[in-house]
Amino acid sequence: MIVRTWHGCVPVQHTAGFAKHLEITGVQHARATVGNLAAKVRCEQQGEYAHFFLATWWQDLTAIKAFAGENYQAAVTYPDDEQFALISDPYVFQFEVNAVSVL
């Protein structure tokens, strides 16, 4: 199993709007991709920004490429992200894992 993590932040006034937007773009896109095992979002406010962390779990690299394309190390972003003044990390982290446990 591979876990893929993304981070982005928006000005705090866009927190609720971006949370909904992320659900209907990145989360639903990931969950609809064959080979996706799960997708979870965490949001943390720090000063004037809301930081979003998206973790997705995948069967294998083929499934990730179906979601993200051949340049799978780059973040997947969506055209409407700009309306929320999103600052997206340009790259994601991917790790092979044997098990997932809740903290």
Keyword list:
103 residues; Alpha-Beta Plaits; 5-stranded antiparallel β-sheet; 2 helices; globular
Main sheet makeup:
5 strands, antiparallel
Rg over CA atoms: 13 Å
Number of helices: 2
How many domains? The number is 1
Number of strands: 5
Quick one: CATH class? Alpha Beta
Derived structural class: alpha+beta
> Could you tell me the strand content as a percent range?
35-45%
Poorly predicted runs of 5 or more residues? none
Overall form: globular
Helical residue percent band? 10-25%
Report, as a whole number of angstroms, the end-to-end distance. 19 Å
Q: Which CATH architecture would you pick?
A: 2-Layer Sandwich
CATH topology: Alpha-Beta Plaits
> H/E series, N to C?
EHEEHEE
Return the average pLDDT rounded to an integer.
95
Structure description:
There is one protein chain. This protein has 103 residues and is α+β, with helices and mostly antiparallel strands. It has a single domain (2-96), classed as Alpha-Beta Plaits (2-Layer Sandwich), CATH 3.30.70. Helix content is 24%, strand content 36%. The chain has 2 helices and 5 strands. The longest helix is centred in the first third of the chain and has 17 residues, at 15-31. The protein is globular and about 35 Å long. The model has no long low-confidence stretch (mean pLDDT 95).
List the helices and strands and how they pair.
Layout: E1 2-11, H1 15-31, E2 36-46, E3 49-58, H2 61-68, E4 87-88, E5 93-96
Antiparallel strand pairs: 1-3, 1-4, 1-5, 2-3
Summary, kept brief:
With 103 residues, the chain is α+β, with helices and mostly antiparallel strands. The chain has helices at residues 15-31, 61-68; strands at residues 2-11, 36-46, 49-58, 87-88, 93-96.
